Amino acid sequence: MAAHDRTEPAEPTAEKPAPSRLQALRNQWHAAWEEGGFLHQRWEDLAQARHAGWHDIANWIKAVLVLAGVCAVIILLDTASDIVSAVLHRLSATGTVTATPGTDTTSGLWGVIDNPIRSYIAQHSTHLPAPGSAIYTLWQFTGLIGLLGGAAGSTGARLLWTGWGLASAAMVWSAAPDGSRTIATGTATLMWALASIVALRGLSPRRLDDPAPITPQVNIYPAFYLPPQPTPYFDADSGNIQHRR
User: Fold this and answer.
1) Distances (CA, A) of 226 to 209, 223, 229, 242
2) Segment-wise mean pLDDT, segments of 10 residues, the chain, 245 residues
3) What is the pLDDT at residue 11?
4) Cα–Cα distance, 167 to 147 (Å, whole number)
5) What is the 3-state secondary structure (H, E, C) of 114-126?
6) Which of 37, 51, 188, 236 has the greatest number of C-beta atoms within 10 Å?
7) E runs forming strands in the chain
8) Which residues pair with 232 in a beta bridge?
9) What's the CA gap between 191 and 47, in Å, rounded?
10) CA-to-CA distance for 228 and 24, rounded, in angstroms?
11) What is the pTM of this model?
12) How far is residue 206's CA from residue 185's CA, in Å, rounded to a whole number?
């Protein structure tokens, strides 16, 4: 066999090292944020949801909002059941509500908010003509009216709910123990914010557009143009009446 017919074996090529797991995750992260990626599309949905109505926003945003609303309702119902059970227990025991606002009788998560408010009302209502129990009942009734009226869309009820929440947080901050004052106030604010999902439903700040400039109304009436008429005169040369233009 001729020398030029011999084929030499090909040298093995070096394989590229496989990317590390961290590098693969980084590549997937960048790919998700590129145009058309998963995270890029979700961000576009959030950006469009601010200007779109309920029927035009993405379905996953609707699901998140509905789930958050259901969780808030469950928390409110659980809190309301604790309040109702405590009131019924005191009524069945003595026939009247004997617990004074200064007595810490509520336990659980609601007690973090209720007990400081009871103590605050008891400490600052000693010289008032109305008893502390009446003021405490008024505080509960005001919060209930603000919640239900705000959910119905009443502007006055929403203002009432806002003032009630701020006053409640201030009372919790003032009457809570020094070691747990921050936690108690933060819990009260968080529960108030969760309840505000229902009370302030449909409320969104809208930018007031600049009013259009007022332009004066000009009435245009049609005008008639009459061309100048020729002036007749007597031409002595021709002996006829001519018209001078």
Assistant:
1) 50, 10, 9, 21
2) 52 59 83 81 82 79 83 74 60 46 59 87 86 86 87 87 92 88 89 86 59 63 66 69 65
3) 55
4) 15
5) HHHHHHHHHHHCC
6) 188
7) 231-235, 240-244
8) 243
9) 28
10) 92
11) 0.45
12) 30
